[in-house]
Automatic annotation (TrEMBL):
The lineage of its organism: Eukaryota, Fungi, Fungi incertae sedis, Mucoromycota, Mortierellomycotina. Residues 386-414 are annotated as: Disordered. PROSITE patterns: NODB. Residues 1-20 form the signal peptide. Keywords: Signal. GO terms for biological process: carbohydrate metabolic process; fungal-type cell wall biogenesis. GO terms for cellular component: membrane. One of its GO terms (molecular function) is chitin deacetylase activity. This is NodB homology domain-containing protein. It holds the Pfam family Polysacc_deac_1. Residues 148-355 form the NodB homology domain. Gene3D superfamilies: Glycoside hydrolase/deacetylase. It comes from the Eukaryota.
Length: 445
């Protein structure tokens, strides 16, 4: 017989051992970002998907002109200055486990010229690497597993022009969002730049309210591997903070500008709650010459970009595109990019099961707020790290289907939840606690 005090001490020791044990998943645990400020819920924005009133028509037409007061942010469209001493960034840096961030120096032209062909850093820009060389973060999402699926994504939004003129407004949001709404209520992943959300918050709210999935595209759209660790953290932090304040969501997904990512940047993003999404098809719409926004610097003509998409369509029609589905890079960036997507979308919807890239990868909950539950392609939802989820969902089936999901569970406000390795660890700890309790009782009796 042993004392209750000894049994309790034994239970504490075994519980500590369980907490330190290898989780059932090999990925580094993630948790809801605790470093973001507590904002009041924004007005005029949904707090769940499906929204509370599923019978209400989605918004369309001119955007709200309500005034927004956004303060405490760095200069728009610029890499954050003095990030290492920024009082908002310092505690985030302190919260990151830097032993799990590879010691990779920022890249530059000189490093690019001498970079080893073995690609030790999984640097996408150099060789298209999407499978990290470190084992504790998952592979990038870059294609749809099911053949015949088109993962619809748009970068660089929300699109707006200043000064506001009749011509500019013709292409600015909500033009694309209204077009998607009027074409089978099509949903997409929207990769928002934090600075642009600051410039067009009403457009960002329209994107969320329409049922699109919102992901981060950094604060100022830099080549991320060229930045210091502190600057990388700042780019993620201010993008997440802006979306939390304006939209009330905390994305688990991000896309690197220009695709420029390596294992250092991936590891920081992962610890800040986000998984990397790339693509396997690039429309090159961003590179069209003579564009309304940036006339001159583009390297291709509109015809060339059009021919690229036409080639994919022809390949599909000829029965040669059957191995996998695709995540396609498109942009809400300019008159040329909007024209290209609006021209091809009806044809794509006929030939492909068109949906967000998150949906074709069965990610039903792309935010840390659990009240948003979106339709997916498969029957089983997964977490952003690929592990199974128990989330009840509605599946997307059939060509160009965009059915609404069933009601999700959880509160409409932010919640701190664990995913992946942490979830497995919690299950393991629970089991051990039960065994410890039983053993302690047996010993006492």
């Amino acid at each position: 017989m042993i004392s209750l005090q000894y049994a309790a001490a034994l239970a504490t020791l075994l519980l500590a051992t369980a907490n330190a044990a290898t989780p059932t998943s090999s990925y580094l645990p993630q948790s809801s970002p605790a470093f973001l400020p507590k904002f009041s819920a924004p007005t005029g924005v949904i707090t769940a998907w499906p929204p509370a009133n599923t019978a209400a028509a989605l918004p369309s037409g001119p955007l709200s002109t309500a005034a927004f007061t956004l303060s405490g942010y760095p200069a728009m469209n610029e890499v954050v200055k003095n990030a290492a001493t920024d009082p908002n960034i310092v505690p985030v840096i302190a919260a990151i486990d830097w032993t799990k961030v590879p010691n990779i120096p920022p890249t530059n032209d000189t490093i690019g010229a001498s970079y080893p062909s073995s690609d030790p850093n999984c640097w996408w820009t150099k060789g298209g690497c999407v499978t990290p060389k470190i084992s504790y973060i998952p592979q990038d999402i870059y294609y749809c597993p099911t053949p015949g699926t088109w993962g619809l994504t748009y970068d660089d939004g929300p699109m707006y022009y200043y000064p506001v003129t009749a011509e500019n407004s013709k292409w600015a949001e909500p033009n694309l969002y209204d077009y998607l709404l009027n074409h089978n209520n099509q949903k997409a992943d929207l990769f928002y730049i934090g600075s642009k959300v600051m410039g067009a918050p009403a457009a960002a709210q329209r994107g969320l309210n329409d049922g699109h999935v919102i992901c981060s595209h950094t604060w100022s759209h830099p080549s991320m591997t060229t930045l210091t660790n502190a600057e990388v953290v700042a780019e993620f932090y201010y993008s997440l903070r802006m979306m939390k304040e304006v939209l009330g969501i905390t994305p688990k997904c991000w896309r690197p500008p220009y695709g420029d990512v390596d294992d250092r940047v991936r590891a920081i993003a992962w610890q800040m709650g986000m998984r990397t999404i790339i693509w396997d098809l690039d429309t090159n719409d961003w590179n069209i010459n003579g564009d309304q926004v940036a006339p001159g610097p583009g390297a291709i003509t509109y015809t060339e970009a059009n021919n690229t998409v036409n080639g994919w369509i022809t390949n599909r029609e000829n029965g040669n595109d059957t191995k996998q589905g695709h995540v396609v890079l498109e942009h809400e960036l300019s008159n040329a990019t909007i024209t290209l997507t609006e021209f091809w979308l009806p044809t794509i919807q006929k030939l492909y099961n068109t949906m967000p890239a998150t949906a074709c990868n069965n990610i039903a909950q792309p935010y840390w707020e659990e009240s948003f539950v979106y339709p997916i392609q498969g029957k089983v939802a997964v977490n952003t790290n690929g592990t199974s989820s128990t989330t009840p969902v509605t599946t997307i089936s059939g060509s160009n289907s965009t059915s609404s999901s069933s009601s999700g569970t959880g509160s409409s406000g932010p919640s701190v939840v664990k995913s992946g390795a942490a979830a497995g660890q919690i299950q393991a700890v629970t089991s051990v606690m039960g065994l410890v309790f039983a053993a302690a009782v047996a010993l006492v009796l």
